From TrEMBL:
<dbReference type="Pfam" id="PF07687">
    <property type="entry name" value="M20_dimer"/>
</dbReference>
<dbReference type="GO" id="GO:0008777">
    <property type="term" value="F:acetylornithine deacetylase activity"/>
</dbReference>
<dbReference type="InterPro" id="IPR010169">
    <property type="entry name" value="AcOrn-deacetyl"/>
</dbReference>
<dbReference type="InterPro" id="IPR036264">
    <property type="entry name" value="Bact_exopeptidase_dim_dom"/>
</dbReference>
<keyword id="KW-0028">Amino-acid biosynthesis</keyword>
<protein>
    <submittedName>
        <fullName>Acetylornithine deacetylase</fullName>
    </submittedName>
</protein>
<dbReference type="GO" id="GO:0006526">
    <property type="term" value="P:L-arginine biosynthetic process"/>
</dbReference>
<dbReference type="InterPro" id="IPR001261">
    <property type="entry name" value="ArgE/DapE_CS"/>
</dbReference>
<dbReference type="Pfam" id="PF01546">
    <property type="entry name" value="Peptidase_M20"/>
</dbReference>
<keyword id="KW-0170">Cobalt</keyword>
<keyword id="KW-0862">Zinc</keyword>
<keyword id="KW-0055">Arginine biosynthesis</keyword>
<comment type="similarity">
    <text>Belongs to the peptidase M20A family. ArgE subfamily.</text>
</comment>
<feature type="domain" description="Peptidase M20 dimerisation">
    <location>
        <begin position="179"/>
        <end position="288"/>
    </location>
</feature>
<keyword id="KW-0479">Metal-binding</keyword>
<dbReference type="InterPro" id="IPR002933">
    <property type="entry name" value="Peptidase_M20"/>
</dbReference>
<dbReference type="GO" id="GO:0046872">
    <property type="term" value="F:metal ion binding"/>
</dbReference>
Length: 392
C-alpha cells in the first residue's frame, strides 16, 4: 500500500533532520551526506552510482527506481548549502528545529527539503508497480556556480534510458517555474609592481589598473539596466552586473602589487554573456599589455569562475505540464531571477521545470526555514507522481 501524503510528509521531515545535520557548506565535502543516502537507498534495495569531482572529495549521486525504460522522471537537487558564518541564528543551524509551523535549519528550503521528499517517496516507489522509472540526481557545488551537475548530466544523457523530463526542486512554493537567468562570474587579478607611493614612475599600482576595469563594468551595468526589455517577465527585467568582492593593496603609501575582484553577470534567456563582455575582455587584454611593458612580472588575468546557462521557457513544455498536474498548479507562467541547474539539464536536451518546497526569500538567510505546509504540499506532489508512473 502506498503511503498517505501525511505519512510521506512525516517521513520526509525525519529525513530532513538527518540531511540538515550534515554540514555540506560548499567549501567542504558532502561525502558524509552522500554515504548516508547511499545506505538509506541500499536498505531499500536501490543501487546508487557516484559521479565524483576530480579529487574525490565531493560527489554527485544517482539512483534509478523502476524499470530501465525511457520516459522516466528525474528528481534533481543539490546537496551543498551556503555558509552560516556571522549570521545571527536563533537556533543551531545544523539541528532541525520546529517553531510555529516552520522547520528551521541551514538548507531546509535550499534545498534539502526537496531531497528529503524524494527520499521519503523512495520506499513507495520501490513497492509500486512502476511502468516508468524515477531517477534521483543529487549534485554538489551548485551554490558556487553549478559546478558539479554537468558531469552527472553527461552520465544521465549517456547511460540512462532517456527520461521524459526533469524536475529541479529549487524552492518555488511548490509551483512550476519555467525559466531562470544564467550567470557568468569571473575572477580578475591585476598584478603590478610595488614602490613608494611618491615614486610612481618606479612601479605600477594594481589598484589603479583595477579601478579602470571596474569603472568599465559599472558603466556596462548601467547600460544593461537602460537596455532592459520592458516586457521581460524577470525582476530585475534585464541583465544585471555586480562586483561582489574587491581586495587590493597593503598600505596607503605603497603602490599596490595586487588587486583581485570578482564580478557576476546575470542574463535572461536570449542574451549572450560572452558578447556582452567582449569590450571588457578587450580592455583587460590592452591593460595587460600596458602593465607588462612597465612590469614584465605583472599583468591582468581574467578567469571564469562559473558559466551557468540560462533556462528558457519551453513551448508546450512536457516538464512544466507534468509539474503543474502533480502540484495542482493552475497559476500564471513564472520565472526566477536566480541561476540554477535547470539550464544545464535543458542544454543537454531534457524538458525541464523548477518546482520545490519553500521560498527563495528564506534561502541563504539566518534562520532559514521551510514551512511544514510546504512539505505537506510536496508530499502530495510525490504521492501523485507515484500514481502517475504506475499508470501504463
Amino acid at each position: 500500500m502506498v503511503s498517505s501524503p501525511e505519512a510521506l510528509s512525516a517521513r520526509a521531515v525525519d529525513i530532513l533532520a538527518r540531511l540538515v545535520s550534515f554540514d555540506t557548506t560548499s567549501r567542504g565535502s558532502n561525502l558524509a551526506l552522500i554515504e548516508w543516502v547511499e545506505a538509506y537507498l541500499s536498505n531499500l534495495g536501490v543501487a546508487t552510482r557516484r559521479v565524483p569531482n576530480a579529487d574525490g572529495t565531493k560527489s554527485n549521486l544517482m539512483a534509478s527506481i523502476g524499470p530501465a525504460v525511457e520516459g522516466g522522471v528525474v528528481l534533481s537537487g543539490h546537496t551543498d548549502v551556503v555558509p552560516v558564518d556571522g549570521q545571527p541564528w536563533s537556533s543551531d543551524p545544523w539541528t532541525l528545529t520546529e517553531r510555529e509551523g516552520r522547520l528551521y535549519g541551514r538548507g531546509t528550503c535550499d534545498m534539502k527539503g526537496f531531497l528529503a521528499l524524494a527520499l521519503a517517496a523512495a520506499p513507495d516507489l520501490v513497492a509500486a508497480d512502476l511502468k516508468r522509472p524515477v531517477h534521483l540526481a543529487f549534485s554538489y557545488d551548485e551554490e558556487v556556480g553549478c559546478l558539479g551537475a554537468p558531469d552527472m548530466i553527461e552520465v544521465i544523457a549517456r547511460d540512462v534510458p532517456k527520461p521524459a523530463l526533469v524536475v529541479v526542486g529549487e524552492p518555488t512554493d511548490m509551483v512550476a517555474v519555467q525559466a531562470h537567468k544564467g550567470i557568468a562570474s569571473y575572477w580578475v587579478t591585476v598584478t603590478g609592481r610595488e614602490a613608494h607611493s611618491s615614486l610612481t614612475h618606479l612601479g605600477v599600482s594594481a589598484n589603479m589598473v583595477a579601478v579602470k576595469l571596474m569603472s568599465h563594468l559599472v558603466e556596462l551595468s548601467e547600460r544593461l539596466e537602460r537596455q532592459a526589455d520592458p516586457a521581460s517577465p524577470f525582476l530585475p527585467k534585464g541583465a544585471t552586473l555586480t562586483i561582489g568582492q574587491v581586495n587590493g593593496g597593503t598600505a596607503v603609501n605603497i603602490l599596490a602589487r595586487q588587486c583581485l575582484f570578482v564580478f557576476d553577470l546575470r542574463t535572461p534567456p536570449g542574451l549572450d554573456p560572452q558578447a556582452i563582455l567582449a569590450d571588457f575582455f578587450a580592455m583587460a587584454a590592452s591593460l595587460d599589455a600596458e602593465v607588462r611593458a612597465k612590469a614584465p612580472e605583472g599583468g591582468v588575468k581574467v578567469e571564469a569562475r562559473s558559466l551557468t546557462p540560462s533556462f528558457a521557457p519551453e513551448k508546450d513544455g512536457v516538464a512544466e505540464a507534468f509539474a503543474r498536474r502533480m502540484a495542482g498548479d493552475n497559476g500564471p507562467a513564472r520565472v526566477a531571477p536566480y541561476a540554477a541547474e535547470a539550464g544545464q539539464f535543458q542544454g543537454a536536451g531534457f524538458s525541464t521545470v523548477i518546482c520545490g518546497p519553500g521560498s527563495i526569500d528564506q534561502a541563504h538567510q539566518p534562520d532559514e526555514y521551510v514551512e511544514i505546509a510546504q512539505m505537506e504540499r510536496g508530499a502530495q506532489f510525490m504521492r501523485r507522481l507515484i500514481d502517475d508512473l504506475a499508470t501504463a
